[in-house]
Amino acid sequence: MKKRSKVSVLVIVTILVILFILLRKPSKSLDNFKVTTGDKISVSEKIQPTKIPEQATSDFPALADSLNSKSNTIEQDLHIVSEILLTYRTNFQNKGNPIGSNAEITLSLTGKNKLGLVLISANNKAINESGELCDRWGTPYFFHAESGIKMKIQSAGPDKKMWTKDDIEFEP
Predict the structure, then answer these.
(1) Helix or strand (DSSP H, E) at 146
(2) How far is CA 2 from CA 5, 26, 57, 115, 128, in A?
(3) Could you list the pLDDT tens digit for every one of the 172 residues in the chain?
(4) Fewer CB within 10 Å, N- or C-terminus of the chain?
C-alpha cells in the first residue's frame, strides 16, 4: 500500500472514531469541539487497529448516572438501561447481550467482562447491596434475553411486586 493510501485510511478511521464518540453523546454541544490542523502524522509500515481512546470509554458510565433520578420517569430509566445494553452489544458484537441473572448481567456491565469495559459504575446508586441493578423503587429489574440482540427489561413498578398490573416493561 502506498504511503498516501495509508494516510488516507488513517484519516478516515480517525474521522469515524470521532463521529462514533460524538453520536454516542447527543446531549453534548459541539461548541467546545476543537480540531487542530498542522499536526504531523506519522504512519508506520503496518497500520495498527484503531482503539477507542481511554478517555472516550471513561464516558460510558456517565450514561447511567441519571438512573432513578427524580427528574426522570421509569420509562426514561428503562430506556437508559436499554442503551447501556446496546452499548455492551456494540462492543461485544459476536457475543450479544450479557447473560445470567440480574447480578451476573450487572457484573458484566460494571467491567467484569472480557474487555474490562465499564458501562455502569459499580457504586452507581441503582445497584443494590446484592449487586443487582434496581428500579427507582429498589426492586431488581427482570431481564429476559429474547435473542442475542434483543433484551426485554421489566420493572416491578410502585407496588414492588413482579408480575402485577403496575409492572413496566421495555422491549426495544
Answers:
(1) strand 142-147
(2) 5, 37, 32, 33, 55
(3) 555 666 666 767 777 767 666 666 544 444 444 444 444 444 443 434 434 444 444 457 788 999 999 999 999 999 999 999 999 999 888 888 999 999 999 999 999 998 899 999 999 999 999 999 999 999 999 999 998 889 999 999 999 999 999 999 999 8
(4) N
- pTM, two decimals, is 0.65
The residue ranges of every structural domain in the chain are 1-51, 53-170
The strands making up 142-147's β-sheet, listed across from edge to edge, are 142-147, 150-155, 168-170
Pick the CATH number of 53-170 from 3.30.750, 3.30.70, 2.40.128, 3.30.700: 3.30.700
